[in-house]
User: Fold this.
Amino acid sequence: MDDESIEKFIRQDLLDFGGYAASKSPEILKSGIKGSLEGIIKLDANENPYGCSVKVNRALADYQGINIYPDSGQKELRKQLQEYTGVAAEHIVASAGSDQLIDLILRLFINPGDEVINCVPTFAMFQFFVKLNWGTVVEVSRDEEFHVNIAAIKAAITNKTKLILLATPNNPTGTITPREDVLEIIETGLPVVIDEAYFEFSGETAAPLVGNYKNLMVLRTFSKWAGLAGLRIGYGMFPQKIAEYLLRIKEPYSVNVAALVAVTETLKDTNVLMDRVKTVNDERERLYCMLKEIKWIKPYPSKANFILCSVLKGRAKELQQKLEERGVLVRFFDQPFLRDSIRISIGKPEENDILIEILKELEEDSNDQ
Ligand SMILES: *Cc1c(COP(=O)(O)O)cnc(C)c1O
Assistant:
């Protein structure tokens, strides 16, 4: 059988599925870049420039239980997360990154053709998982400053709507949705997912509301603030009924033992980690001011660990490539609502300085022409 005939067995709706344009891993970078990896400034995936807690590294080096499956019920982990979030353990479910919870939620709610409201531009994994789970994405666009339009969300609701997805702070725009807007969305009565991947940076959360509503789900992750992106650990806070269903349909061992160790140690070291979060927030404001001074770049205010910028002159793709040649990685977008844009994750102060230096040089180069 040749390659083409096998395709008739594959889901028709996936034949033109675009996948997700993921950031480049260090292994891939190594093969594509001339110099050493040491000098690379990685500002393309909102990772933590300071790494994880040193307690995590130490505990993992000593850990003896890798040959044993983790607890599928996540008993200890959910207790720890209860302590951290203030939300009772029965409401909490953890997963291999919060990405996996987005998938599980869609699997739980979506029948083929059901509609999911998505406030674009936003995190690309939302539409990825909606499509993968036979859902139909209904896009409601944000305004020019990337704030959500509550009236438009309500107007988009039909009898097929099963979920409303909302990231706050939003990725890649950095926009916060204020509490009163979140409440209005929850009060539609539809299942609502609030993705708070950047909560520790913004300090704003809907978590305390979880106990009060039967339709509110709040997602969090250790990937960004705690520097555990590579270990894949996220969690959500749900109405108890939904948490029970999610635990039933999730792969039993999706949270690996290394991630369990890492969370335990991370939660012993929150003072250090939150100091770093504060440093990143301070750096974000400093970088924002410096970007504002560059005439051909328009940075948008952000409450997360990155800044979205419109590239007003020339093309964002070109800029991204020029930065890459100089060893600085950023994320570029060219799609509806995000024409010629780059997203810059906040690095260490010295890394942000190098970025700004290069941008200024590029400006001079183009003035010379
Ligand atoms: C990074 C990110 C996530 C995914 O985090 P993981 O826990 O690493 O899967 C989820 N939502 C948003 C908006 C993000 O930016």
The radius of gyration is 21 Å. The chain has two domains: 3-51+271-368, 54-268. Residues 46, 97-99, 123, 167, 171, 195, 197, 221, 223, 229, 234 surround pyridoxal-5'-phosphate (CB under 6 Å). The CA atoms of residues 154 and 188 lie 8 Å apart.
